[in-house]
Amino acid sequence: MGSVGVVESSPASPQRSGKPARSTAASRAGKPLAKTPRASSRSTTARAGASARPAPAPVVLEVRGLRKSFGGTVAVDDASFTVRRGSIFGFVGPNGAGKTTTLSIITGLLRPDAGQVVVGGTDVWREPTTAKRKLGVLPDRMRLFDRLTGAQMLYYAAVLHGLDRSAARSRIDDLAVALGLDGSLDRPVRDYSVGMVKKISLAAALIHSPSVLVLDEPFESVDPVSTAQAVDLLTRFAAAGGTVVLSSHNMDLVERVCDSVAVIVAGRVLAAGTLDEVRAGSSLEDRFVELAGGRVAVEGLEWLTTFSD
Questions:
Q1: How do residues 276-306 score in pLDDT, each as one tens digit?
Q2: 3-class DSSP state for residue 65?
Q3: CATH architecture under which domain 59-145+210-292 falls
Q4: C-beta separation of 247 from 103 below 8 A
Q5: DSSP category for residue 249
Q6: Do the Cβ atoms of 150 and 186 come closer than 8 Å?
Q7: Where along the chain do its domains lie?
Q8: Distances from the Cα of 11 to the Cαs of 59, 84, 123, in angstroms?
Q9: Range with the poorest average pLDDT among 39-53, 79-93, 95-109, 170-184
Q10: Which pTM was predicted?
Q11: CA-closest candidate to residue 108, choices 120, 95, 123, 87
């Protein structure tokens, strides 16, 4: 399967209106303006459309030529894509495709063999401290200090990021309400369900108000109500200018939440761009299955219909 060209995602920006410029040497000198041939309505409309087109949002995440191998196994193979400010960017692929490895490199948790990651103009590996201040991270299967309560866990995360006591407590209260955690913060984390751990981890990733969130399977094992709360929060975050990069196996959710997406298969990014560009007229699930190798006809399972007594 050939690779679809990488396309930068670009959320819409507000349109700006302004008065048409008046100005020629004749008008400034007080002379009447010479009549000029009237432009056709088609060319006038084309020029108006071009001037009204909003400028693309700036790129805040650049991934260039990432490579990573473990022994003789290539996990990430020349992966490249960009993400613009205000996007919710879905990163999808089969199990073992390289999603978690790529996200770990982006967040500075794993050093690549080759390639570059730039977050908000800062190289993650040349200036790791500066880059990581801009990031909020929710790793897959994150281990927490499970003897702490939820409130203590979030306070610890806030202090690590330099927040004072007052700001920390205010933000903890806000996030608890937004994510439906306000009745659970006094309980030890070890008593939380898998879904609750995901929510407390998301709150910890957000508490320092990062510009870019990187979330590995944030909705796995999360119930529909909690998922809706998290999606609402992420949508507000992106609308305010934050950027979200998330991995998920839930194609329907990615299609509903994300405005741009990349598909990675066997370590290679085979398609990246806006949701419509990557779908190419299909559903995201159908396009994903096509890029990942397609559906395979299975034969020799006639015994499945014998139905033992």
A1: 999 999 899 999 999 988 776 777 788 888 8
A2: strand
A3: 3-Layer(aba) Sandwich (3.40)
A4: yes
A5: S
A6: yes
A7: 59-145+210-292
A8: 11, 7, 23
A9: 39-53
A10: 0.79
A11: 123
